[in-house]
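Convert to structure. Protein one:
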Amino acid sequence: MGIATLTLITLFLLLLLLFVASGDAIGPFACDPKDSTTAALPFCKLSMPIPERVNDLVGRLTLQEKVRMLISGAAAVPRLGIKGYEWWSEALHGVSDVGPGTRFGGAFPGATSFPQVITTAASFNATLWEAIGRVVSDEARAMYNGGTAGLTYWSPNVNIFRDPRWGRGQETPGEDPVLAGTYAAFYVRGLQGGDGDRLKVAACCKHFTAYDLDNWNGVDRFHFNAKVSKQDIEDTFDVPFKMCVQDGNVASVMCSYNKVNGIPTCADPKLLRNTVRGQWKLDGYIVSDCDSVGVFYNTQNYTATPEQAAAEAVKAGLDLDCGWFLAQHSEDAVKQGLLKEVDINNALANTLRVQMRLGMFDGEPSAQPYGNLGPKDVCSPSNQELALEAARQGIVLLENRGPSLPLSHLHHRTVAVIGPNSDATVSMIGNYAGVACGYTSPLQGIGKYAKTIHQIGCADVHCRDEVLFGAAIDAARRADATILLMGLDQSIEAEFKDRKGLHLPGHQQRLVSEVAMASRGPTILVLMSGGPIDVSFAKNDPRIAAILWAGYPGQAGGAAIADVLYGTTNPGGKLPMTWYPQEYVSNLAMTDMAMRSSPRRNYPGRSYRFYKGPVVYPFGHGLSYTNFVHTIVGAPNVVSVPLDGHRRNGNATVLGKAIKVNHARCNKLSVGLQVNVKNTGSKDGTHTMLVFSVPPAGHWAPHKQLVAFAKVHVPAGSEQQVGISIHVCKFLSVVDVSGIRRIPIGVHHLHIDSIKHPVSLQAETLGVIKT
């Protein structure tokens, strides 16, 4: 993107921010009952169905008015009593002021800042994700009622964390498509509410699709052409978006900056019109990433004129432009015959329907559902307690020799707290964050349990020199235990900043090793990061007693870390991504999108599903202070897959010993498991149970794939039974090289930790399956 374009965007956003800040948004957005000239208009009548109201409004607008409503800073239509609206707000892990639609101040100085998504995903707790969504939308609605926020939130980010160097991997739920899709569905449900067609806020799953590179080795997201096979698109990259639309009923999908197989995603009708709206049945709008239309014209040179770019985007299925491009060029595109006004009408109808579902055309906000929410509902004690609980559940215990954790109140009364993240506050909330209600740093959290000796050891996470090492080493010699808080922050990994490697930055590793050598008591390494870190040196160092990963744990992260260190909380998090050794990325281009390994070209494959090489810690790894034992007490050995009648006379075959999913009667076809989980240790604990499937051998299948997970609290010495339902067509299917999803016939092995259970899938009837 050129300097001139960036300057225009910056000016545009500043003007929007001034517009939003200066306007009085507390009154009705539209259909003010006090305005006799507009209140009686059909589109304001609540008794009419929303589609009829939308059609009435669209029919009253001029072409000039329509095109000015196709952008994120949608213009007002004073003659119809409609105010201007800023569509861009963010709520990745709490209400954020990254977008110009939301601002903090006055009665709303901040909002609850939950852990970054990668940390929350490590809880593998879908009910927690939905609960966080409910709190975030409560606070968003409260701020909207107070005139400081919008109702359309471009969150969550459900891209696959494909490469461990990706700077935005922290925003995602990890590397597994089922985990990412389940997170998407539950968080979106929490945000949007459960009041039928009415929306509490409108969520948005982004960035569609195959978007997971920001700026690596001279290639940036504005120029990147992701070359992706049909198999990987269907099997990996599109799965979270499909689940977000179909299971979460999300109100919006955002297309990304990059090209996919030579076509900008925001100009590709196969992706937008055919897949998102056609096959998946999106009930909502499709929005561009900010200035994406301008990018594919100015930077990618995809069209010869700006009018062609506007026409291509709208005809592909884009409804809203984050930026100004469509407002500038759509009218001329119509005049030049490149675009029909009916195309603009259809795009506008999709955005207006969402606004009407939000109640924005229902008159006075205070008289509507959620109209009672206000400042008292933001940063409330219960909301902040949930942020603390989310951080506790997301912390992963990677290593515990001895065991050395939890620390003892009696034996570890003086603790050395060392490291560049030891007194972290803002860095704990990661990116796309807002203004937190307040912070508890690790130093403060540990200080509630023990007397602390604090030394940072490194001036910052870059740790460019060893000037401060001496004081840190001396502190470790004087303390009963040493806690090192190391890792990364947004200066290392962030939007538009991919990592160069996987080691700790600068001299951090040397600080850890020297402190551990000098420490009088146990040395505990606590890592803050979004992406994985190669800490093989620490894993193999017997002087490092334990290792924790806290991700970016949110505003209460320090308290959660301390609770885990001292055993108030028994850790139950599991890694949502593979932790690779540095050698994995040494000769691996981030631009290579292939998921599956290829021995022919010495390509290792990506994620636990397709990579079989050495790891530092595997996907799903995480220890507890107690022990859990599983027993499968109920499960079928054979499941029949009924066909839907797509048969014809002839030789009886099932192509490739796999049935096309769309030829099976899938609705309630599932495998039910009953699993007893026994806590054989001496501490109460909450167990994260992961269920994997190993499909029958074949060229299409991954090594194994996550098919279900559950969270269960089990007191010490007791046992709980957990029911698991695995949808056969969704989770026991695989994708062939043509991108067709099929159910392999034969024995699938279900794995829960060390136990296995075989389930044989058989075709209910045999016939020649149409292919």
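Protein two, convert as well:
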Amino acid sequence: MAEAHQAVAFQFTVTPEGIDLQMSHQALTEIYLSGMRSWKKRIIRLKNSVITGVYPASPSSWLFVVIAILATMYTRSDPSMGLIAKIQEHLPVSQSMSTQCQAVVSAVLFSTMLWLLLIFTMRLCLKQLLSYHRWMFEQHGKMSNTTKVWVALVRIFSGRKPLLYSYQGSLPNLPVPAIKDTVKRYLESVRPLMDDTKYERMTKLAEEFESSLGNRLQWYLKLKALWASNYVSDWWEEYIYLRGRSPIMVNSNYYGMDFLYVTPTPIQAARAGNSIHAFFLYRRKLNKEEIKPSRIPGTVIPLCAAQCERMFNTTRTPGEETDTVQHWQDSDYIVVYHRGRYFRLRVYQAGRLLSPREIEFQIQRILDDPSPPCKGEAKLGALTAGDRIPWAKARMKYFSSGVNKRSLDCIEKAAFFVALDDDEQGMMGDDPAASLDRYAKSLLHGKCYDRWFDKSFSVVYYKNGKNGINAEHSWADAPVLSHLWEFTLAFDSFQLGYNAEGHCKGDVDSSLPRPQKLSWEIPPECEEQISQSLAVAQALADDVDFHVFPFQDFGKGKIKKCRVSPDAFIQMALQLAYYRDQKRFCLTYEASMTRLFREGRTETVRSCTNESRAFVQAFDADVCSRLFRTALEKHQLLYRLAMTGAGIDRHLFCLYVVSKYLGVESPFLKEVLSEPWRLSTSQTPVQLSEMFDPVNHPEYVSPGGGFGPVADDGYGVSYCVVGDCMINFHISCKRSCPVTDTHKFGAQIRKALHDLLQLLSPTQKDHKQCCRSDVGYT
């Protein structure tokens, strides 16, 4: 128990001669260095707050304004038009201050007020400029003169070298669409899914809602929009995520995969050492706001960075009615799970971040530790995988005091969670396709007890050196986490690297204290609850079917040559594939971001439209090509409307929430919110392509990640467009549903992609080898 002694700064013993006080120099040093690190972080936060607060100006610009005003005063000019004299008259000064000194102080005060006014004006101008969205609806490659002027003004008012959160105060608020526009778009979106009788009934419900209750609900929503930064995000987080009482495993959490074709090292501990070090380097950059603000690719338009704030040191805690997201300012350790035991691993020693080789050394200590789990400890994580109410009750009853509370606090306050698996995963063996499917299921749910699904994210390291990530969804959306994941993968392989034996580079300080094994006292009643939660989670996990495949016959390069949006192309392929698979159309969900606005998250693009239905039904007709282009244009229009705050579903969702607060029922809203999304889709963006080397190292590609099905009789489809020649698909469904099959649907997607490309470029007969890489499976 050396680590326990090191945690005590001093010990004392009462003897007949008095008190024998024993000081621990090492512990006091640790306390001092920890305090210094904490104060450094506070100073950095304060400095960044000042820089961000005055953006797009800079703190040094204040001195420039002061000098300019003083200089004009000495030339006997009065740029203040008498205001400096007025300030001097009302200046509370001591008798000892000379008239000239009073004039200087008054000039400095005027300069400061002028400087603040200029900052406010610049920020207001930038906010108005960022509220302009017409550029998004212009034809690709044809920029209007208005947009050219707008781009120039955005560059001027954006300032230089912005920090991560510099644009937050200048981002516009999400607008509330007109209720008649939302209702009109909604009716248009459900027309291809309803016969005449059902559509007529829904139209009457919509008209009644718009003319009566809708206006009342809209008034309250506009009032909230004036008061809050974003009228959607807080309600979306609470009611869609935190108030859900079903398991978050599979239903809410999502995953991300490692490189597809390469494993940088086969040594489990070494892979963990490099990537854990990279995670903490990213957190350091995040705390210092040194990460560049995300922008719409190819533009100067910034995206909201608010979701980054809770990336680390965050956990979701269960409650009987609603969960909460807790975030701590700092944490200098991670919690590691291995063979049923939980370990606390400190990654800072004497105020410095451990090197990758030292973290590898500590991870290997955990792997070699022969100690057995405490009674009830091995499957404790199943509580986070089961229903939320039993977990909330168990947490209150068995983990609110004593050693269990201390150990649970340790997990929840950790920077993130690490799981060391004894399995081997990745694309391998005689059946690489099946191995990818197993890999996806392992990352999404594991054994249902070897992940801590409440943590903001958990990193899994496999025996063969592969890794992956599982993320809780309430605190942020996938693009935010994928930015972290891409950085970690790239930094691990291209910056840190490994030695010839596959170990991390550098030396080891063998005097490092051993990782601390957490202790538990789990009573039999709690063990029974763990078993019940595990049974619920296991049934859910067993019912999930996955199919993951990289499509390499062609990619966005060939699609763009046909002057078509790759995303719209893939969405039309999914519509065609689903119709061939199910012989019907369905309500389709595609996630679109609304981070053009402050605290924006997502909006829904309803991809099944009248135009896409007409195209699919006429696929073999002569007019098919024209209908296809029309469907693509319609999808792009809907996507742009969603991005610019003119979507359908978030507005209707918030109107529904207001109706519940007011205690009124709306048959229209009730029916809208109960419609199942049988095809739920999302694209995982590639954001840090500059950190990789696709020319010299094309094999270093990640297939992205995926999620579970939203409807019991539907599909979940995630896709990631990598480079010009690859599209990765992650398809999920329920095995218990007799009409869905991921592999059959995957085959339909492949066929649809080829058919659509053939439709756009009929002169090219064979696309199968146009982009195929020399690596990977075919």
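Residues 99-130 form the longest helix (32 residues). Residues 552-644+677-763 form a domain with the Chloramphenicol Acetyltransferase fold (CATH 3.30.559.10).
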